[in-house]
Amino acid sequence: MTRKQQFILILILGALATISPFSIDMYLPGFPSIAEDLKTTIASVQLSLTSYFIGIAAGQMIYGPLLDRFGRKAPLYAGLIIYIFASLGCAFTGSVEALIAMRFLQALGGCAGMVAAQALVRDLFPVDKTAQAFSSMTLVVAVSPMIAPTVGGYMTAAFGWHSVFIVLAVITTLIVVCVYFILPQGRKADPSISLKPRAVVGNFYTVIRQPQFLVYTLAGGLASSAPFAYIAGSADVFMNLYGSSEQEYGWIFAVVAAVMIGSTQLNHVFLKRFKSEQVIRGAFAMQTLVGILLITGTALGGFDKVTLVALIALFMAGHGLINPNATALSLAPFSRHAGSAASLSGSFRMAMGGVASALVSAFHNNTAVPMIAVMVGCSVCGLIFLAVGKFTIRYNARKRDVEEETSVLM
């Protein structure tokens, strides 16, 4: 595969994985307008974000087995078509309840792109190159929170929030065309993989029994929940508490995303000198230190806008290092069940993200404390789980070695 082919491949895979981040970020500046138009509260509108996370978590459990059984493209097409129609449903909804329901359907369709993109990276790149491939793909994905809220802010101000969902439908239609004409098939259909509930659950159980998958999926999922807490609370914090306009909020989001993009590219440099496990531990430690500053400053009365943005951006830089390495390590042990592993990994992460966003909404108190507390709590819990998980794996390995030596001597 030439470098040009790799570039085009990463670009398309990144676009697939970007569908959901765009869907999450692009309508955030419209929260106040949506609440006013639908005669509801921002806290109620935030539930449409939570329903999206729930839809992604549920949908990925479905697409994993389908991608393994029918190949990568057929389930992908089905999901993206659902997404397009659901996006149009969001655009023309007349109540917050309908918006919440349409966002759930939108997520069920859009998550096909996320699962397929991860599975295709595992299909098309050697195991020792997947971390670099995920970092490159993350670069494409990371551009979405840099562009999406900014574009969404200007679109909401000029054409209304409905236009955001129409544009999402158009963009996804273009992605479908690229997938059809350019993207390789990847792993072919495997008729031996059964879709009966017992067999599907058995495949998932096989994946979950792999300790490396479990540790890095859950630790990485906890770390990934922090950005979702930020997404859920940032519109209220910056637009209502700090008085930012829709356009300024978009630029704030862009600054945070730009720092995250920089950290994903630093990952390429770090991987030349350190193992993925070492990069993850260092990133978690950095997030914890910055998190202490955020919690302390917020509890003592809050930061000015510039300081808060700077610290949040530094905190999110850790996510740019943790996510690609944790994803690569969690999928490394699998080949035949890569689709199921990718779906479980993504489902766990989005479920945790949904919980994080729901907690921000539940503890909403017109301050930045709920958002910051959930962000930092996610990172600290991820670090603790990683440490405990790695210790447990090493302990069980030593225990097995001792038992084997004892059996040999006997």
Automatic annotation (TrEMBL):
One of its GO terms (molecular function) is xenobiotic transmembrane transporter activity. Keywords: Cell membrane, Membrane, Transmembrane, Transmembrane helix, Transport. This is Bcr/CflA family multidrug efflux MFS transporter. Belongs to the major facilitator superfamily. Bcr/CmlA family. GO terms for biological process: xenobiotic detoxification by transmembrane export across the plasma membrane. InterPro entries: Efflux_drug-R_Bcr/CmlA, MFS, MFS_dom, MFS_trans_sf. It is found in: Cell membrane. It comes from Chryseosolibacter histidini. Pfam families: MFS_1. One of its GO terms (cellular component) is plasma membrane. The chain crosses the membrane at residues 7-24, 44-63, 75-94, 100-121, 133-155, 161-183, 213-231, 251-271, 283-303, 369-389. Residues 9-394 form the Major facilitator superfamily (MFS) profile domain. It is a multi-pass membrane protein. It comes from the Bacteria. PROSITE patterns: MFS (PS50850).
